[in-house]
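so i finally got all the pieces together for this one. its two components total, 641 residues if u count the protein bits. some of the lines might not be protein, just check the labels. i wanna see the whole assembly predicted at once instead of chain by chain like last time, that was a mess tbh
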Amino acid sequence: MFDFRNLAIALLFALVVPAVWASDQSIELTDDRGATMRLSTAATQPAAISTFGADVSLALGVVPVAVTDYGLQGVPDYLSDQLKGVPTLGPRHQPNLEILSKLSPDLVIAIRRYTEKDGAHLESIAPLLALDLISLSDSLRAVELAGQALGAHEKAIKLNAHFLERIDELSALRKEKPATTIALLTSGSETPFIYYEHFLATALLGKLGFNSIGGALENPEEGIPLGYRVSLEALLELNPDIILMLPTSRQRAFTMNPVWPYLQAVQNDRVFEVPHYWKEGAGPIARERILDDIERLLLNNPENSPET
Amino acid sequence: MANHPNVPLYRAYGTAFLILAVLFVLGLMAGSRWVSPSSLWAVLNGGGDILTKVSVMELRLPRNLLGILGGAALGMAGAVMQGVTRNPLASPGLTGVIASAALAVVSLRTLANPDAFWLPLMALAGGFLGGALTFVISGRRQLQPERVVLAGIAVTSLATAVTTGLLLVSGAEAAELYYWLAGSLMGRGWVQLELVLPWLVLPMAALLAMHRPFKLLQLDDDLALAMGLAVGRWRLIFLLLALLIAAALVAFTGPIVFIGLVAPHIAKRMIGSEIKHWLPLTALLGALLLLSADILARQLAFPQELPVGMLTALIGAPWLIYLLNTKTSVRSA
């Protein structure tokens, strides 16, 4: 006799088990726009419209299918070896959507402030993970989100934990030492641009006992602006102990100003050039390198870590 | 044009000099830290603390001088353009000269790593091409105000579009170039002043020396020809000198607009038919406008600074609207 009860159980099993299995595989994420996306499976072909996207993908063991560049300056130097052969989409504020769509990515990891206007277009190509990548908390959150999207959540959590542990270790080296003032500058023009305290690189310096003279943004949670043009007169007034300068493609005009030699950092030979990844250091590789640089330039060098 | 000075000349010059002197001292005192009159006096006599001394002598003094020189140059360039084309709307900003010079500088800075020496030459080449294109489009002979303005808008739009295209590929330098394109005296010191000085002073001196042909060019062409003036040649010489001044300044300060439009009009209203005083008084008023705008730019958003080009545009744009609305009366003035 036909057993309807067993048939019903079998049908129920056949319907429910795949659904449960599917729900286990799907990933739901809310990015920094507040947009929620659902990925049926972890992304394996991410495209990076940000240095961070390329950095975090590589750090989590996934080679992106496409990356953006810095216009004529190409892809970020520190990732160039690992990105050999990866197609470029042009600058991150104007990525070539045609190339992107041909590459059929299954995820776009983007910097939010450059891609918000093209959000709808990007989302028609692939799910968009648009991230604020300005502060330390942005970096930690973004790495975790990217880890979830790429199916490497545990690894991302470990990367964050390791990074925070390292900050603690390095800050222990600076304990009981007087606070040192620092300015992180960029620009090749007559007027330098100085970063606020909430900016990732200056925030890391702050955690390690180097206070940025750029000061705090009134509403740091807004993230932007990252800093401001500081007059040489104001710089002279604030007179930082150490000056760090991001690279530029030409000689910095502000360093030729007659005022420059009067800055105590210049007089004490405490002016250092730091690599370009300091500018967009939210990725796991870049931020570790920033800590390496701080350790090498400022912490392990007694001359640059004033005792008095 | 009125037949007599609307303001007695001694009063016009005296007032302009007095205000300029007050602004100059104010410009030495104003900055990230206010310098008291006694400290300023001490610094000017070789004393004072080192920070104040450096701030005043190495930053504020050359910046003030560049503001005065640049304002005077832009004012004169505008007066020359308005005078020789007999077009009240002609000015470096409205004839595509500034936008084209800026395009040339942006091109050079994006595609090469230039020595500062090349910037004025490149700006000059760009400004010349832009200005020439505007006058060619508007019609060499008639140079009607509306046609010049429309042609200038077209050339400016073209230059701006290409500049924008260059900014898109300039990568990390884009923010720098955007800021530069707003026009500023911030950070400019003795080096920039020394580099730009010959490009401004020599043409300005030549323009002041050539007051007779300049006066004759205000007349009808046939009348000027009858008085023995080679109208075409002189017009070209004056326009080239005006262009040289405006383009060279752009190379060092970025585009600063509207001074060349506003200063000549104010001066002309003051001097009436005393044309030989038009250029010197315009130079004074241009200096006054740019210096005052720069002092405001230093203070309004302290500790940051506003681009002075933004402030001059805020002053100049309503002036342009006013001129366009009163075109008839301006033409007959």
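Chain B has one domain: 9-332.
Chain B has a mean pLDDT of 86.
anyway lmk what u think
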